[in-house]
Amino acid sequence: MGSDENVRTGRHCVFRIHVHLVFVTKYRYSVFTDRHLIRCEEIMRAVCEDFQAELVEFNGEANHVHLLVHFPPKVAVSRLVNSLKGVSSRRLRQEFPDLVRHYWRAQRLWSGSYFAGSVGGAPLSIVKQYIEQQNRPL
């Protein structure tokens, strides 16, 4: 396995699990400015720490954000996403009253859907080939 700094250890496991998340604002409204995105990153970084996860990368535009999260296997991606979206929506709407005017009826900052993609490690073709070779008789 080598000395890869991306490999983490838990009590009973060694892991390197990354997920690419994309959250879109409700109705795809373009509401974020740089100050919103900076605060959003801080909030999401703190939420990740609560899950013993690491927010490796964050970026966004006026109507969506991208996250790269390194997380332990005990964390369900859906729970992490619900917490990231819920906490950030609540805090951003509290701290930036200008966001509320876009969402006065829905009281939600984020769309109900999201993108989650697994990333990292070897390409799938290499992993598939490796697994296929494990079953060969000696």
UniProtKB/TrEMBL annotation:
<dbReference type="InterPro" id="IPR002686">
    <property type="entry name" value="Transposase_17"/>
</dbReference>
<dbReference type="GO" id="GO:0004803">
    <property type="term" value="F:transposase activity"/>
</dbReference>
<feature type="domain" description="Transposase IS200-like">
    <location>
        <begin position="14"/>
        <end position="134"/>
    </location>
</feature>
<protein>
    <submittedName>
        <fullName>IS200/IS605 family transposase</fullName>
    </submittedName>
</protein>
<dbReference type="GO" id="GO:0003677">
    <property type="term" value="F:DNA binding"/>
</dbReference>
<dbReference type="Pfam" id="PF01797">
    <property type="entry name" value="Y1_Tnp"/>
</dbReference>
<dbReference type="InterPro" id="IPR036515">
    <property type="entry name" value="Transposase_17_sf"/>
</dbReference>
<dbReference type="GO" id="GO:0006313">
    <property type="term" value="P:DNA transposition"/>
</dbReference>
